[in-house]
Amino acid sequence: MAVSLYDCTVANFLQMLTGVEGFLAKGLEHFKANGPDPADIVQTRLWPDMLPFSFQIWSVKHHSLGAIEGVKAGVFSPPPELPDLDYAGWQKVVADAKQGLSALSRDEVEALAGKDVSFKFRDFNLPFTAENFLLSFSFPNFYFHATTAYDILRSKGAPLGKRDFTGPLRMKR
Description:
By secondary structure, this protein is mostly helical. 60% of the residues lie in helices and 8% in strands. The longest helix is centred in the last third of the chain and has 26 residues.
């Protein structure tokens, strides 16, 4: 059986975004009961030279829904300016990404196979096919930022485990 572009991308993005949604909710519940203030979490960094929690969540959206949108347009660039949102606002960013990906049809995503897409940043340009861009560029970035957001919550005491991160497994029916 061949694996489709939709199954390799959108299905995985949706699984992980569900995990992110869940660990954000579990973290918020913990912080409301035990501290710290969820408003402080938004600017938390694991290390001074790393970008904050807010950027990690923004990048999760950018490297999932934004990646598919970039492939459709043929160009993907770093994310737009970071909005100033509270914890609940960042939860909505994840929900909006899930909603946008859920609205994509399998045929719409399959039609992107083989399409040229470029990563552009200032004068820097990396040419890809849709598949190679999504699987070798966006997926590593997506997982990196989702993991970093998870790790920030864990570092602040949220009682999260691996199952909170992975989201719902797509098991044989």
